[in-house]
Design a protein that fits this description.
4 copies of one chain form a homotetramer. Chain A has 2 domains: 157 residues, 3-Layer(aba) Sandwich (Rossmann fold); 178 residues, Dihydrodipicolinate Reductase, domain 2. Chain A contains 12 helices and 14 strands. Chain A has 348 residues and is α/β, with parallel strands linked by helices. In chain A, strands 3-2-1-4-5-6 form a 6-stranded parallel beta sheet, with helices on both faces. In chain A, strands 10-7-11-14-13-12 form a 6-stranded mixed beta sheet. Chain A has a two-stranded antiparallel ribbon with strand order 8-9. Chain A is globular and about 60 Å long. The relative contact order of chain A is 0.15. Chains in contact: A-B, A-C, A-D, B-C, B-D, C-D.
Chain lengths: 348, 348, 348, 348
């Protein structure tokens, strides 16, 4: 099969590097364009990237000449790992110029005709693309994936909402350092410490799931109406966000029912057998002291949500803890899975 | 003023060392007896203790000869930092033999006639001592302080409950390593990791506040009736438990009201000017990213609860974060403040 | 090819788990016997092992019934990851009973007729096995690999010694937590700390390289005669020992020569193409701030020594820094490579 | 006694904050001027400083209005914690304008007529001030203290050099995160990692001790001639640099002699009883696994060098390990002690 040429916007950053890593040897996509700031343009990728992943810099990317982020790449599909200070305009430029933009950036997530997409959760939002194309006056469009903390939350709430009707969620996250990029968090804020605040994070986590679990009516999404409290904290972990959840449902539920629903959850990516889709989008672990980031974040290549400690709640209905690999399922892997889904649907 | 001779049970352990540290130069109490296991008995304290506090081993304790934990110490008041595997029986032996036992151990906290005491929260439970004395047939009794995570929670809930009526609390803790003693947690569980479980901890945190905020009727405590969810996690912090709280009240409240109530809270230890009582039992910090363990745990000698991020809740009424120094206000310091209160009340 | 059945002694421990992990799908060996303490015997491996590696418990081992460490396993080749408190006697029992014991334990490393073997460094010590067989009166024997810190040191010194003659080495190690097993190091010794001492470690690191770089004469090894200073420290790293070296040679050398010698180094495992042999036993990195444990320890599956910062010394001749994956090349992987070499040589 | 008014250059930075902390209630000095960049000028200190020390922002500094770093402060003595990108010029401006500049910055340390001063090590370099005054044409001058890693090294080498003649030193440091300021080191470089390189650090550590232990002849210092190898590493420690040393001497020595010499070392600050001078500039600890940063860095207020593990070397003569509090004795505390010495000598 001939692979689809793709570009990476923000290719030298933390998310950009993950794109390059995860797309090495991808069966659908082949990186042909690496775009970054003017400072890097004109040089080969290996000379400008400060490669910080423990696997080797892929040979296919190493010698590509880095370009600026202008909408004239050969590839007609681009992944965006751009910083939010520039992502808004650049992504729109690409969409307007007819490109398919698969973005991990936050800027357009809440645009009414932009899908905020998780393949397992809301493939129906793909329909919004048509309205975007009209707006941009061509074939271009933007598809986004949610914030890293939201992904874990929404993946777990989706099957529970379908089965029992979610009403209320209190979530506390213990988020990994890599979520802030590199250099990101100061070591003096991380060693022997917790920072009980991440700028703009709680706002995103309290709203994005409502769009994700909403329903498409015509050219927009009617948001879900349950309530979320988010307490977001930074802890001394390299990768993997841990989230504790207390959930209230419309119906009475048992821990057995919740466990079964989570274990049995399969989405469209599983049905289509997409390359990045884990067989089990949610893995339920039994040991009392799991999931733990260092032991469990890489299960199924970092693409599954790991759930543990499902138990009755005193205040709401069910308590549990989940773990999401924030830079794989919570960022670059999420965008790649979105692109795979669009390809399978014939949209790219 | 002549100081009251006191003994330390479990003097070589982590809590025992904190007792020795905090009681150096105490204005009410003077350590005369250090009790530990048979292995240590007969040797001088400095030769058997593996002193692990960053301050010097106090000279007054260094050369005391360690005794076994038998109820024949010269001191008639003993602080107990015993491990729960042995605390139950030993503390009872001392009480039965006429000693005042001020304990940090969990074993007798839920005994119906044993005060579970925080000076600022429920000094009325001191009345229970009379019933204990009858039970033990002499002058001896046990007074306990709560679990380290509970202390922070109960201190914050007390004034809020009086003002607005607490109905529901969802709490997630990020607990320090020192809470597990030494050697305690394995470094391989701590570095680059979170463990989302602490054995027996959630059970304590969900129940102890109900006794603490209960009311004494006759010879027992009628527990408070609000509901608590506890999600207890171990994070890579040396000292200081951080707790996120979502709280629901009987009345509508504003963040301004909550802030004012917490700031103005004063208890009996403050009125009596007890040596270990901080002027402000609760310190409210304004910065968005505080409190942080490494920066704030030592405020007021580790005896204040530090509260920040008071904000509206989507699910319940108010969200906030608190920090409690787990080995000072959450353990040895709590017991010492209890003893100071008993002394001020003429009970010891 | 039919695989050779092998047993693991100490199968539930940290090194034992690495053996199980690294031998899943091994082309020469197949695990048939898992041996541990009496407490575990009679139960299936998956029920007694506290599996702590981030990869899945291999299916081939999960359901094996654990046995005690008695010399009656079906497999005639056993890998030993036994604790040194018991390894001495058990390994000797197996050798005496005719088994080939490939050991990571320290107990027999210095026995005069026991090879202390690194395939790339001193395959000639395999000759000692004949003398052992005579001693044990059968076909049994013990082969050991060195201490984890020694492995990195000896691998780098070997080609340099051949080329320039090593005279003096001052080594400071910053050793990973996993080197102490699990639970091993207390988190309170690791977080925000360095411990400048590891029991018995410096003694081993100062002597083992002399046997490794010695020469076999008849039934014993004439030790090399250079001098080593070892300063061993424990730092807050999960895996990967970093070592700084100042080295003095018999000849004058340049950094270019040293770099070339290290890069070009190949040993017998490379010539034989053994399954666990990395193509380059030593990888030289150029960046000023490398190697770093978190970025470089997994290069070539953790089987290469990573060397950086080769520069002139003011005091001796050459300074450099090296990184060795302590639980792979420094322990289980070293033993497996030894077994592969013995198989290739027809000894097992 | 009337206190001398002093200013702080770079008052909002990490070293600047330490100056403010350590000078609260100082018996000789009183802060009257806080100088920083234009961005902060005109606002009160408490509004512009991101205070990151665990003690309270001193009340005497909180409300001072911050000024720019121009040589028109009321105080005639200024402490400089300026970043090296600007320190060179600003400090010279102040000196030329008649101010006494007590600097922690590296820029002028190697100027031939600028003392590189540790009170206990080389008070004779104070004589150089006269030559500077001539150069600057007034009463102004600069006095510097060494790099944080150098301080520990030079303090230990000084008495040993006097007693036995130092010839060669191989030093490996494990340096704290605070040495890089705030935000400084990325958490992703610190957690589960060692970085075996600190820019420009080894060069300083290999040369500064030679000036410190040199001798003043006329208007310049004849450097000491021993050789130093420095291997500088960044580890996951908040405060406190640990250094391993192998030392070669001109004379044969025993560990007993070395221990005695270090324990008995006293310098001019001790003789003069300066406020910041620890009674023992070097504290020798006996336990095999000490000193450790988290347990020992605050001994004597962070102003002593802690030495342990004095033992024979195989390669040189003596091995030992030392610990220096890098932001107290290694930075702000060093400068303050220098100022105290100048005051005691009537120079300021």
């Amino acid at each position: 099969m001939k692979r689809i040429p793709v570009g990476i916007l923000g290719a030298t950053g933390a998310v950009g590097q993950r794109f390059v890593q995860l797309l090495e040897n991808h069966s659908y996509f082949e990186i042909t364009d690496l775009c970054a700031s003017e400072r890097s343009a004109g040089k080969s990728y290996k000379d400008v990237v400060l490669w910080r992943l423990p696997t080797k810099l892929p040979a296919n990317a190493a010698n590509l000449e880095v370009k600026t982020c202008e909408a004239n790449t050969g590839a007609k599909v681009v992944f965006s790992g751009l910083d939010s200070t520039v992502a808004g305009e650049i992504e729109e430029n690409f969409a307007r110029a007819g490109y398919a933009v698969i973005s991990n950036s936050k800027n357009h997530r809440m645009d009414s005709d932009v899908p905020l997409l998780i393949g397992e959760v809301n493939p129906d939002q793909i329909k919004l693309i048509e309205f975007q194309k009209k707006r941009f006056g061509g074939d271009g469009f933007i598809v986004t994936n949610p914030n890293c903390t939201t992904v874990g939350l929404a993946m777990v709430l989706k099957p529970l909402d379908e089965a029992f009707g979610v009403e209320r969620v209190v979530m506390t996250s213990m988020q990994a350092l890599s979520g802030a990029g590199y250099p990101g968090v100061s070591a003096l804020d991380a060693v022997d410490n917790v920072v009980p605040y991440i700028e703009d994070e709680e706002e995103k986590v309290e709203v994005e799931p409502l769009k994700l679990l909403g329903k498409v009516y015509g050219n927009e999404v009617k948001f879900a109406s349950f309530k979320i409290d988010a307490h977001c904290n930074r802890v001394s972990v390299r990768d993997g966000h841990t989230e504790t959840l207390s959930i209230g449902f419309k119906k009475r539920v048992t821990t057995t029912q919740v466990t079964r629903v989570l274990k049995n959850f399969r989405g469209l990516p599983q049905k289509l057998g997409l390359p990045s889709a884990p067989k089990e989008p949610i893995v339920v672990v039994e040991e009392a002291n799991r999931p733990q980031p260092v032991l469990d974040r890489d299960i199924n290549g970092g693409m599954s949500i790991i759930v543990g400690r499902i138990r009755e709640s005193n205040v709401l209905d069910i308590n549990l803890v989940l773990l999401v690999h924030n830079t794989i399922r919570g960022a670059a892997g999420a965008a790649i899975l979105n692109a795979e889904l669009l390809k399978a649907r014939g949209i790219i």
